[in-house]
Amino acid sequence: MTGNKRLEAVRQHLTSSEDQKAHTLDPIASMNEERKGTSFDVRQLTYHLDGGERITKLKENMMLEFERDPLFKLDDIHDLNKDQLRERTMEKFRSILHHFQNESVDTFKKRIELISLIDPGFWTRFGVHYALFIGSLQSNATPSQMTYWFQKGAVSLSGMIGCFAMTELGHGSNVPGLETTATFEEGANQFIIHTPTLTATKWWIGGAAHTATHAIVFAQLIVRGKRYGTKCFVVPLRDPKTYETLPGVTIGDIGKKMGRDGIDNGWIQFSNVRIPRNHMLMKHTKVTELGKVIEPKLQQLTYGALLQGRVAMVVDSANTAKKALTIGIRYAAVRRQFAPTNSDIETKLLDYPIHQRRLMPLLAQAFAMHFTGSEMTEMYNDMMGQLDSATPDDPDMDQVIEALKETHATSAGLKAFCTWNCLHTIEQCRQACGGHGYSAYTGLAGMYNDFAVQCTWEGDNTILTLQSGRYLINSYREAIKGKKLAPGVGYLNELGTLIGKRCAVPTLQAILHPDVISEGWRVVCANVVKNAAIQFETCLANGMDVDDAFEECSQARLYAARLHTYAYLYNRFADGVQKVADERVRAVLTDVCMLYGLYTIEENDGAFLQYEYFTPQQMQFIRAQVNVLCKVVRQQAIPLVDAFNFSDYIINSALGRFDGNVYIHYFEQVKRANPPPRDHPYFERLIKPLLERRIRGQDDDDEDDEDEPESDLDDQE
Amino acid sequence: MTGNKRLEAVRQHLTSSEDQKAHTLDPIASMNEERKGTSFDVRQLTYHLDGGERITKLKENMMLEFERDPLFKLDDIHDLNKDQLRERTMEKFRSILHHFQNESVDTFKKRIELISLIDPGFWTRFGVHYALFIGSLQSNATPSQMTYWFQKGAVSLSGMIGCFAMTELGHGSNVPGLETTATFEEGANQFIIHTPTLTATKWWIGGAAHTATHAIVFAQLIVRGKRYGTKCFVVPLRDPKTYETLPGVTIGDIGKKMGRDGIDNGWIQFSNVRIPRNHMLMKHTKVTELGKVIEPKLQQLTYGALLQGRVAMVVDSANTAKKALTIGIRYAAVRRQFAPTNSDIETKLLDYPIHQRRLMPLLAQAFAMHFTGSEMTEMYNDMMGQLDSATPDDPDMDQVIEALKETHATSAGLKAFCTWNCLHTIEQCRQACGGHGYSAYTGLAGMYNDFAVQCTWEGDNTILTLQSGRYLINSYREAIKGKKLAPGVGYLNELGTLIGKRCAVPTLQAILHPDVISEGWRVVCANVVKNAAIQFETCLANGMDVDDAFEECSQARLYAARLHTYAYLYNRFADGVQKVADERVRAVLTDVCMLYGLYTIEENDGAFLQYEYFTPQQMQFIRAQVNVLCKVVRQQAIPLVDAFNFSDYIINSALGRFDGNVYIHYFEQVKRANPPPRDHPYFERLIKPLLERRIRGQDDDDEDDEDEPESDLDDQE
């Protein structure tokens, strides 16, 4: 079909009322008709999202490999209990190690991205060793210490598996407040690792319950009675030959969680466990044999490591949201409910304006998170490259550091709002599937439970938003003093023109331009950051210290971070769309991006009206345009989710099948997962005695006559 | 302690900086100090919330009974699998039937309310028989049919247990669209119940998998080839002596769900199952032996039955939110994180302004839902009483019917927004507990999963909001024509004064008055309803039919319903506070109610600014006052949740213990639930071969020397 013919077909599809009559209740036909109206080359969009045809094919190959790998079987997972899930998860190590040792880092990263969608619990369990344990060695070990642990098998998993023992029962976010101690004993040249209180018990330690032989332990360094703060130590936990815990190490199982039960979180208590001095990781602070503590001249630059985790979580939020939306939107394209008065054929959920309102803005948001994640990944790689190659007296270094700080703060907000957005998307898709969304087998319930932890770990979301807000206030105060800020907060250098600015367009229609949306966000962000900064300065003026003042204006910080982050997401999306070469792909994404822009303005209407960037009349127009754009995007909704290109195996939900044949597959899966029991469960023990118990005052002669009710019942004749 | 002394103590507690020094890390002491500052008589508030001392004591007795009843054991439930949970749940029937047969209806209702907090799965399973099966008989059976089924054992559960087979695989909300057929066969005087397609399979039927002997089946009545719509039929499913399914009945298990796994949902297919004619429930439509169909003159008034379910769900939303908040707030009163620069003692979460922002408005909302639930319960009982006693020519009847319609529509919105609010509250409390919120044992994860279904069943929330919005538009149009509306929508009779009205207060401080808040809501609601009605009329003017026009403006309907419902909640709360006799209780609730009013205005700031009831400056003041009121309410937060008066057994979360002793009890529960395994799970099968596998190119001589790392590692000396 040529482009013109296709467009003609689309137009007919959109306008012909005859087409309505061809509708049928058959879900496959319902799905097929959706694809007939596709306005763009789906494959081109997939290539663009993936970063090129090569990567699309790589991912397709991987999806097929996983689907065929019995260890990665998915359709029975909802009925496995915690112990079965953990064992299944451990089995996957064998398979993944093979790939780890045989493919390039970039290829393997793609594999890991897919694993996060297939089995988030395994993703975590594997990540505990590879990202956290080995990551800690890379950040905190001296080169020779690193060599030592790598030779011992840390990378190849020969003879050892690591875990990461940071959080304690009484302390999560506050790492400097951890209670576990590492006391240096000079004569012995050893550290004594000790859990002094119940709350010092290492808690939530992934891999500790069943898997790990070694732990990176965060503990308070104490030398000659003096405390030097929290440092990292490698502490052996178990004999790798027998898996018995070593003397002084007590390990327990954290047990059942909301989700990710494939990972064996545990708790650990140390009772005066001795480790050699060199098990302290000494890249930064060093302790000599004689008990001399050498502290680093400069606080280590940890931005890099933190950034990497956050970038990964933005990407994961985008991917998980795409998976949830594939299910919610495909189901809405075949599910029908209520017939219009003039028809026997019920209406598709997706044709209801309210259902479009539920799902289309979230689809747009998934794209925004996607483009943001991609751009952040690139930016991160660039920056790290620059940092690695730069010399301290490089003239551009200041600018790189400034950009790094800005990205660091922005990424804190992005991690928070993207994980919240994704969790919200999953739940909205689940509810949009009606009752079937409550079934374990349709996938969204488990997805919610697995994903929920992302809002807490790697920095509690609320705390991260406050960090982002703090950076915004500081940037504002620097801008006031004339400092040129990094591009991401560059709008704070234009306060003079932005504060008080109103949307000056000749017509309502003229609002629908990316430059207007973008300016609106700059104006609103400048205002809310200014407002937060004024609150902060008022607190200072009233005699509060800096920390108290920041606490006091934390709601304003959160609000500033929220708007800054939404603006950032919109701008990355708009930039990303500009870069799309294919015209028709760009056209459809332009609509989606405009929907995202207007929807987020509507969601934050209070701010846009508060600072009078838009008038109430303009805002009313925007609300109406969101409805219009939902309808426009709905026309391409199925091709758009098709472009995410997840195979039915990855989707793992009958409701999200590519072919739309939802009912038969859902029914078959429920039957497969729940074969008829051999005996009626607990009938003899519980039900029969209940039904046959004698009740005071009851006749004995009302014996069952199921098929012949009394004829005196007939009062109607 | 006298009132004055207590107030003095409170003042000291609030102002004394000395008090800070008395803080200790001990969680019990942290909790105790919270109660020292109580400004009101907690017991009085409890009596008020419960509806009197007698009911408080009744509930306390019941909580104790449940706690001592081994069938209602709670602390092991998180580790029971689906099959164990179902069996445990069935066991409880025995216990609850005893109470059902021996206590008054009102007393038993209180018991059921508690059961919903203790075991929502059992609440549903029991409710399927008592509310749905028997409820259907009451609504749809003739008196002699009712007598027949009651004599057969429907109430006493002797020889039969019922289920409610309405929803099908392909149809949920659209009851008239159900596909199951009930075809009358004249000669045989029987109906043939049949499942014609896969999508007609009865689906989600609670109790069908293991429990029920009989079903109320919703099916299309067909007589002499003509369809008469969906009616109810009693269909026997199983032989109560053997529990074998009867000929033509196929039953399967729906299996694993997001939550409430104690209820055995099943699916049912009927293959030409014959039932006697009198198994059709004929209170409304009747079919004679000769195949004459007698349809009712008037459509039955089903408002009553629907209302009862919705009132119950508002009450349940309030109660479940209270339970979640007891956990979240008590934990925040003892959990400490980060020490201020001038102190060794870390700060309580509850003392962080941002944490107050997270939980205090939700606490206020729980009170709003409580007062609304109570008032609706009363109103419902009154109305039903009036309806039962009224004669058709009663002059007040019109007014009662009008009020009933209004309450019906408002209750649709309340069911939707209260269940959404409660679900949101649970998740916010869970996230506010940080990492520990992800543990199954802290209770909030399971609470979320159990509660989530409330947003879908008994009317999908989104559809209910649209019904509410439709009623508002219709009311607006009637008001324009001069009709006097029911009190709940009375503001639509004042459009002339409300549209365009602005907040006319002399000072910002004067905003803080219930009358101002209330007026603001009336103005905003009048505007958004008007706006929705204009959109609707524009659609009609453009040639749409009524149904399409309503669909087209569904976003405006939802928005109108949202604001109307929030206003309703605020007004019920404000009215409720007025009625509190105890002065100090009223004082604290006045603060809580003002927080709720301002918080909901802030949440809907776009509407208040859009219609210019508040100026941007006033809105800024309101935002700041929410912060202030969060701090005020925080001071009484622990006494306020104490007043909910749930025992530790009901709370069933170490984090929500009354005594604040969270860590030791959490630790002990995790240990109890996860005793050390006898063997290292899957070590021999999976871990050992992995650790000991030979890797290409790896030396054999890096044998383990755990305690003696190489000395060349020492690069730092």
From TrEMBL, chains A, B:
Residue stretches making up the Acyl-CoA oxidase/dehydrogenase middle domain: 163-273
Cofactor dependency: FAD
Domain Acyl-CoA oxidase C-alpha1: 303-473
Coiled coil start-end: none
Biased composition (Basic and acidic residues): 1-24
Localization annotation: Peroxisome
Residues reported in the UniProt entry to bind FAD: T167, G206
All copies of domain Acyl-coenzyme A oxidase N-terminal, residue ranges: 41-151
Protein known as: Acyl-coenzyme A oxidase
Taxonomic path: Eukaryota, Fungi, Fungi incertae sedis, Mucoromycota, Mucoromycotina
